[in-house]
Amino acid sequence: MKVACVQSDIVFGEPKENFKNVEKQIREAASSGADVVVLPEMWNSGYDLTRLEEIADVNGEEAKKLLSQLSKELNVHIVGGSVSIKKGDKFYNTMYVTNTLGEVIAEYDKAHLIKLMDEHLYFEAGNEKNLFTLDGVKMGGIICYDLRFPEWTRAHSLNGAKVMFIPAQWPTKRIDHWKILLQARAIENQSFIIAVNRVGSDPHNEFGGNSLVISPWGEVLWNGGDEECVQIVDINLEEIDDVRGRIPVFSDRREELYK
Ligand SMILES: O=C(O)CCC(=O)C(=O)O
Fold first, then answer.
1. For residues 166 and 182, is the Cβ–Cβ distance under 8 A?
2. Residue 218's pLDDT is what?
3. Where are the domains of the chain?
4. How far does the centroid of ligand 1 lie from the alpha carbon of residue 158, in Å?
5. How far apart, in Å, are the Cα atoms of 199 and each of 6, 9, 104?
6. What topology does CATH give the domain 2-252?
7. I need a labelling partner for 190 at 20 to 30 A (CA). Which of 18, 19, 34, 152 fits?
8. Tell me, what's the pLDDT at 236?
9. Which among 135, 112, 138 is positioned nearest to 41, based on CA atoms?
10. What's the pLDDT score for residue 42?
């Protein structure tokens, strides 16, 4: 499966520009032969939280429309990072996944909101897991700070996910946490990790890129460095069952000890 990681900068509080950029990047990824395109977190607005009323996507309609159209036209699945949306009178940090038929097959509201970046003051947290199937393989998606909760990735793995997508806006100053936690999640869950972080900066933070594709054995197959790029990485999904067969951690679990 050819996965295209879109490690981009995001224009603070300017959805129009960001929509244009994302369309260009998805087209570039598709023309390079991608099967799945993966975007970063909150690519429509960045963390311009005080202007959400003005700039959040109402019911995610604009994002869903663009991603569905491009998925169908270009014959690619899209794991749409996340966008800031407004549902009713509340705001959410939401991931959409679209398939090559142009269907929205998953919608996930970020479950863990990061107080350090004031997210909890503006957004509602989601309460549901995010599982979907692409090309017959069960996969899952979480968003940025969700990564710090190993139980959350494990819950997805126990429900069948073999590939985890993790879009982010992870600051440079904690980039070592990002890399180490991602590698740990891949090893302990014996899953592919496709993690796409933005680059550039906003008025509050500099963002560290270092998007990573990691195998179920824990090998870093690609590191995006800290510049904008659209990179295709070829992953062999057969490795998952091979690694799980060699070290059967799922059947060796002692659930009764963990309460
Ligand atoms: O956990 C962190 O250090 C960064 C998380 C983050 O930036 C986010 O959830 O948006």
1. yes
2. 98
3. 2-252
4. 24
5. 10, 5, 27
6. Nitrilase/N-carbamoyl-D-aminoacid amidohydrolase (3.60.110)
7. 34
8. 98
9. 112
10. 98
Whether ligand 1 lies within 6 angstroms of the CB of 174 is answered as yes
* 148 Cβ below 6 A of ligand 1: yes
CA of 31 to the centre of ligand 1 (A): 32
Enter the ipTM.
0.95
Token readout for 110 is 């970020």
- Residue among 110, 112, 170 to mutate when testing ligand 1 (max atoms within 8 A of CB): 170
- Give the model's pLDDT for residue 98: 98
User: Which residue carries 């980039």 as its tokens?
Assistant: 175
Atom 9 of ligand 1: nearest residue by CA position: 145
Tell me the pLDDT tens digit for each residue of 156-184.
999 999 999 999 999 999 999 999 999 99
